[in-house]
Amino acid sequence: xxxxxxxxxxxxxxxxxxxxxxxxxxxxxxxxxxxxxxxxxxxxxxxxxxxxxxxxxxxxxxxxxxxxxxxxxxxxxxxxxxxxxxxxxxxxxxxxxxxxxxxxxxxxxxxxxxxxxxxxxxxxxxxxxx
Length: 130
Description:
- This protein is mainly beta.
- It has a single domain (16-117), classed as Lipocalin, CATH 2.40.128.
- Helix content is 15%, strand content 43%.
- It is built from two helices and eight strands; from the N terminus they run ααββββββββ.
- An eight-stranded antiparallel barrel has the order 1-2-3-4-5-6-7-8.
- A hairpin with a 2-residue loop joins strand 5 and strand 6 (83-94).
- It starts with a helix and ends in a 13-residue tail after the last strand.
């Protein structure tokens, strides 16, 4: 009976219980660029994970935002230069790829690792002049 109670409690606790720790997240992502999409879609954004928990995000338009991440309980929170309030996500690995779920008031679709690369993110910047 106790085993059944433990299994039921873990199922009711939600996906954050199975999430990656900050250390696991850092080891898996550091030095890599991850391309993210929603299920069945091409990547729409990418994040480069740099040493010291620094990150660089792009919507694949050549314009990149610098930021950093930190752990807040079971969540990984990101702060970017263009946005001062943190965006917190739970991360886990499913079928060999990273899956992210936004943990905020506005529900969002899960993001999936479409691919990862050791190559840095291309950030030529916004087009200036014509």
